[in-house]
Design a protein that fits this description.
globular; single chain; disordered N terminus; mainly alpha
Length: 428
């Protein structure tokens, strides 16, 4: 059977897998965005300071980093199906718990549980993509599931606004938190690994593994070799990818947790009126996530190397973040919305490629662990930046310096990848 016909025959099965992790990622971002949307209401109700809010977000980020370390290893040990389920159950419990607390400490604890569970989403999703797709298709598939982050960010303002205006802000946490439990039931019914899926035969498995390294195809027993974290940290690629996440992930967290507040404080946009600007911003980011993966895949189809495709795509999109520097000085809200939307779009294009780089560089059996380790860099950067942003706002009362720093981070990350990460699979 020709690989082209196998690809066509497998399309429905593989895109069902993408749809499942797309919806999980959507729920993930709905749950984490609720607090950012409700910040002005909760702040008024419970008397938070800007620094208090920064510390609460930091609690999420610290737990997220811990969860990345634990979750990636758990996924590689127990497999995608069980590991993904555990992660979503934990974060859904954390989401619902927000409705039961009143103190800053209580919210910090609820955010920590949420972060601990949500950390498992991306290692699990990237691991599933690596298991189901050959390398040439992974960036596009990753872009599709990663667009769930922006769909979640688009849906969240609509759901949260409607629930809050009808029943109050606590019910917003309860209703959105329950979505994860529903997903777990569907996941257990529909998902199977490629080797166990009833619609996957040997020819189709051959397509999935069609561009694996020849050495691994000839010696499949090597895929079972245990690779330790110590071995991962013997390679400079590990440090470079971790650092690139450290300097860029916090920018996305900043958009997610502070954009509603920024629009409220600088342009007088309340919860109800913020729905349309946020829909525009995150619709743009969704397009960027899909298109970023597509651009990279197109370079490969045109005959360029994987190394050239990933790094060139990242550079092109890094340049599009630079206009962020002007945002605090622009009075027209809709121009501001478009610039922030462009920046969120480029972040998602970046994310589609950096997740795929992990599966390009590391063997499949450690993709979950390496995604977790690299994401720790993002979580640590996010934790430090969350407290930093809160304190800067407390001290200065404006966002100018924050936008200026954020605008340069993607070029710095590209430079690190360009210098220290040759994109080819490491031999252990």
């Amino acid at each position: 059977m020709k690989l082209s016909s196998v690809k066509k025959k497998m399309t429905n099965v593989r895109w069902t897998v993408v749809a499942l992790i797309f919806f999980a990622t959507t729920i993930n971002y709905i749950d984490r965005q609720v607090i950012g949307l409700l910040k002005p209401y909760i702040q008024e109700d419970l008397g938070w300071t800007e620094a208090d809010y920064g510390y609460i977000v930091t609690a999420f980020q610290v737990a997220y980093g811990i969860g990345m370390l634990l979750g990636g290893r758990m996924l590689d040990r127990f497999g995608s199906k069980l590991g993904y389920s555990i992660a979503i159950v934990v974060w859904s419990i954390g989401a619902v718990l927000h409705a039961t607390v009143r103190s800053v400490t209580g919210f910090g604890a609820a955010r920590a549980i949420l972060g601990l569970g949500e950390a498992g989403n991306f290692p699990a999703a990237v691991k599933v993509i690596a298991e189901w797709f050959p390398k040439r298709d992974r960036a596009y598939a990753t872009g599709l599931f990663n667009s769930g982050t922006t769909i979640g960010a688009i849906i969240a303002p609509i759901i949260v606004t409607a629930i809050t205006l009808q029943w109050g802000w606590r019910w917003a946490f309860i209703v959105t938190g329950m979505l994860g439990f529903i997903w777990v039931v569907i996941w257990w019914v529909l998902y199977h690994s490629p080797k166990r899926h009833p619609q996957v035969n040997e020819e189709e498995l051959a397509y999935i593994h069609s561009d694996d390294d020849q050495e691994n195809q000839e010696k499949p027993e090597e895929l079972e070799t245990k690779i330790t974290w110590r071995q991962l940290f013997q390679h400079r690629q590990t440090y470079a990818i971790l650092f690139s996440r450290f300097v860029t992930d916090w920018v996305w967290w900043f958009f997610l947790f502070w954009t509603p507040d920024f629009l409220n404080k600088t342009h007088g946009v309340d919860l109800k009126a913020t729905v349309l600007p946020l829909i525009i911003i995150y619709t743009m980011s969704s397009i960027g996530g899909i298109y970023g993966g597509h651009v990279s895949s197109q370079f490969i189809k045109f005959g360029r190397s994987i190394d050239f495709a990933r790094k060139t795509t990242i550079l092109l999109f890094a340049l599009l973040v630079l206009p962020l520097n002007a945002v605090p000085y622009i009075e027209n809200m809709w121009i501001v919305v478009l610039i922030i939307g462009l920046a969120t779009s480029t972040h998602q294009a970046w994310a589609s490629n950096i997740f795929t780089i992990v599966s390009d560089v590391y063997p499949k059996q450690v993709v979950g662990s390496m995604t977790g380790i690299s994401s720790v860099g993002g979580a640590v950067g996010g934790a430090l930046a969350s407290s930093f942003v809160g304190l800067i706002l407390e001290w200065t009362g404006n966002y100018a310096s924050i936008f200026m720093i954020a605008s340069c981070m993607y070029l710095l990350a590209w430079l690190i990848l360009r210098l220290f990460v040759p994109i080819r699979q490491i031999k252990f």
